[in-house]
Amino acid sequence: MEIDVNSATITEDDWRNHIITYLRYPTLPSEKRVRIMALNYLMWNEDLVRKRKDEAMLLELEGLDASRIDTLNKLLAGKQAVSRAYNKRVRNKSFEEGEIVWKAVLSLGTHVAGYGKWSPTWESLFIINQILGMGAYRLQDRDGEIHTAPINGEWLKKFYPTMWDSQAVQTDPGIDTRLH
């Protein structure tokens, strides 16, 4: 559907000038004939528009813009709520050089025969040898061998010694130097 728009330059002695003044300032005194003529017009973005079917369309367009803005605001508020909920549970993983970590078993979904679902998900302990940036680390075995392939920090988990690990430290002097 197309809307034809005719525009004209309004001069001071133009007959529409009185209608425009009345529509802008309806409380000012005006002649009865101007008030009656003004019933057929409305102001739209500082333009004088004759009332017809087009008026309804223009009002709908104005309402549509407002509803789109409201919908956008609701959408942004919803995204912020989801972001806050997600960020509550996300914890950054960062490790320092010399820290002891577990490494995930990277072939996820594989099970050791005989253990089934009780198969280990973390490999033996490793020491962070070098921080490469962007969440990548170079690991070192307990034997001192440095891995050439870097690993993403997502696949590492910090090691917290338990009561049993402290007993192992007392019996194996090589572990004590790597733990501290």
What do you see in this structure?
The protein is an alpha+beta fold and 180 residues long. It has two domains: 16-89, no CATH class; 100-179, Roll (SH3 type barrels), CATH 2.30.30. Helices cover 38% and strands 19% of the residues. It is built from five helices and seven strands. The protein has helices spanning 16-24, 32-38, 53-89, 163-171, 173-179; strands at 41-44, 47-50, 100-104, 122-133, 136-140, 151-152, 156-158. It has a five-stranded antiparallel beta sheet, with no helix packed on it. The chain has a two-stranded antiparallel sheet with strand order 1-2. Strand 1 and strand 2 form a beta hairpin. Helix 1 (16-24) packs across helix 2 (32-38). The longest helix has 37 residues, at 53-89. The model has no long low-confidence stretch (mean pLDDT 77).
